[in-house]
Each structure stands twice: as C-alpha cells, then as structure tokens.
Write a structure and sequence with these properties.
The protein is α/β, with parallel strands linked by helices. It has 2 domains: 201 residues, Medium-chain alcohol dehydrogenases, catalytic domain (Quinone Oxidoreductase, Chain A, domain 1, Alpha-Beta Complex), CATH 3.90.180; 137 residues, NAD(P)-binding Rossmann-like Domain (Rossmann fold, 3-Layer(aba) Sandwich). The chain is built from 13 helices and 15 strands. One of its GO terms (molecular function) is L-iditol 2-dehydrogenase (NAD+) activity.
Length: 346
C-alpha cells in the first residue's frame, strides 16, 4: 500500500509500505476513505515531537471501512463505516476509568506518533471497540472527519476546560481549524460576546461567518487596548489559546479578567513565560491538555441534529495520492487560504 512516511525533521515521502496486520485480538484493520492533515503533523515535521521515529506513517484522523477485526472485537464489524478517533482507548486501565483517555496506558495519542497512522491506504487500529465510532447513515463524511480530532479538541480542551458560561465574554487566540472548532462549540453555552484574534484576515472573516462578534488583527490593532475598550477595562472571562507560541500565550495572560480562565489548546514547541508576579492576585485558572475524545458521541449527535456544521471548515480537497501537494498547501495556509484539507482515497 501507499502511505506518507516521516523520514526525520522536514522530510516526508509518499511511498510503498507493507499492509498492516492484526497483531492483537482487539485490533481492527480499516481501509481509509478520507483523512486530513493536522497542525500537529506540521509540528512533527518541524522536529517539535522527537518521540516520532523515522519510518513512521503520519496521521491520526480519518474515516474508513472496517476490513478485518480481531476475535475479541464486538462493537464494530467488517463493512462498518467508522470514525477513527485520534486517541486510542483501551477502556480498562486506571486512566481510562477516570476518562483520561489521552493518558491510556496502552493507547492515548499513538496513531502517527508511536504507531503507524492514518495518512495511508489502510491502518491498524488497536482497541477497536473503544477507538472507533460507527458512522450513522446520512452523516456528511467531511463533517464526520472533523470528529476525529479538531472538534473534540476545541470543545474539550478549549470550551470545557475554559468553563465557558452563558453571558461570558470570551477571546480565542488563533483562528485556525482548532480555534474555529472552539468557536463553533463555545456557542453551545451562549457566551455574550466572542472575540477572535488572528493575523490572517481571511481566517478572521471565516470566524465572523462562524459566529465571532469582534475580530482583532494584532498586525494593525493593539489587542490589549481593544479588549480593554470592549470590556470597559475588565478583561475577558475566558481566553482560549489555539496557536502554541509564546506570543499568543502572553496575550491570554494580558487580557484575562480576575477570576477568569485561560485554556491552552495549542501545541507548544518551546517554553513560555508565566507571569505569576502579575497573575497570582487575579484568582485565575490555567488549564492545559490533550483531547480525551469523551465528547465524540455527543458531538456526533449534534451534527446529526444540525446544531453544528463542521464540514464548513473544509477549504481544500485532494486525492490521497496528492498528499504531498496538500502538505505544501497546508504549510502555507495563510497564502493559500487553507483551513482543513480533505484527502480522499481513490
């Protein structure tokens, strides 16, 4: 089969790889129908995730058709169309019993990280019963693909961790796919005012279409001054960091109100400054996290009932065989006006 293989910092190649095999009775083999590229994949290629070994097939998102299952698999069958969760869940370890699936002792984020991933024609999924979700009839495949990672990530690590409440003023720093996913799902809780901050005018325009009340571009506006005006000097109740660089985390610290919540979603490749000398007196809460995907069934129902339409995040589509071109587009997202790219197996 063909797959996108990591060959060290800055190196990847679409090449021939051996077909995946069932290794455990709880495994399934899934033929990929659609997959996509995540910002985390770019972090891997930049060398920010040194635990990824050369020769690894990248990717942790996808929908596909189950082609084979181990003898212990009960919840999915050959022929089922499924959503592949970016988090592998054994369901029985201490972390899983606490719903900390991202810290599963025999799973967590392993696809495209510690085992071969989904940017391939086929993929092995460990603990298939807990790590695959059957796709109901009539659900848009592109909407379902967003449930692999970005929608539960934005919701759980941004909105839930940030404790967004009705009437809150919230700011999202970073209007990329995860930031826009957090914007979409924050509206479950009826915040009074949503502010989106980004340096990309196209993404800010998209954020307005998705429900942002105010947009701020730091290249032309002073973020702190603008938010002070909007909040009458109080600051925002919730600041959700969706980029993963020191400058955006600093913005969160600068704009948060007393008693507020900073929810860090972005993947940081280097350390940031934590200004405890200014924050200690403000009674704020700072959260971080890797998605657990325990919200996926609920989000799937929200898509079924047309409460959210995450397929609107898709801007580009390519055959899976053109994944190297898709990476170039995604790596130059601002110039290409790219959000999520859908790669479809031929």
């Amino acid at each position: 089969m063909k797959a996108l293989v990591y060959h060290g910092t800055g190196k990847k190649r679409w090449e021939e790889k051996a077909l995946p095999q069932l290794l455990e009775s709880t495994d399934a083999i899934v033929r990929i129908v659609k997959t996509t590229i995540c910002g985390t994949d770019l972090h891997i290629l930049k060398g920010d995730v040194p635990t990824v070994e050369e020769g690894r097939i990248l990717g942790h998102e996808g929908i596909g058709i189950v082609e084979a299952v181990g003898g212990a698999v009960r919840n999915v069958e050959v022929g089922d169309k499924v959503i592949i969760s970016c988090i592998t869940v054994c369901g029985s370890c201490n972390s899983c019993k606490r719903q900390l699936y991202s810290h599963c002792e025999d799973g967590g984020w392993i696809l495209g990280h510690k085992i071969d991933g989904t940017q391939a024609e086929k993929v092995r999924i460990p603990h298939a019963d807990s790590s695959l979700h059957r796709l109901p009839e009539g659900i848009d495949e592109e909407a379902a693909l967003m449930l692999s990672d970005i929608l539960p990530t934005g919701f759980e690590i941004g909105v839930i961790n940030g404790k967004v409440q009705p009437g809150d003023t919230i700011a999202l720093i970073g209007a990329g796919p995860v930031g826009l996913a957090a914007l979409l799902t924050s509206q479950f809780y009826s915040p009074a005012h949503i502010i989106m901050i980004d340096v990309d005018d196209n993404r800010l325009h998209m954020a307005q279409q998705f429900g942002a009340n105010t947009i701020i571009n730091p290249t032309r506006q002073n973020v702190v001054e603008e938010i002070q005006k909007l909040t009458k000097g109080m600051g925002v109740d919730v600041a959700i960091e969706c980029v993963g660089i020191p400058a955006t985390f600093k913005i969160c610290q600068d704009i948060i109100t007393a008693g507020g919540h900073i929810a860090n979603v972005g993947v940081h490749g280097k350390s940031v400054e934590l200004h405890l000398d200014e924050l200690w007196i403000k009674n704020i809460t700072i959260t971080t996290g890797l998605v657990n995907t325990n919200s996926t069934p609920m989000l799937l129902k929200s898509i079924q009932s047309n409460k959210i339409s995450p397929e609107k995040l898709v801007t580009h589509r390519y055959p899976l065989s053109e994944i190297e071109t898709a990476y170039e587009i995604f790596g130059n997202a601002a110039q290409e006006k790219a959000l999520k790219i859908v790669l479809t197996a031929e």
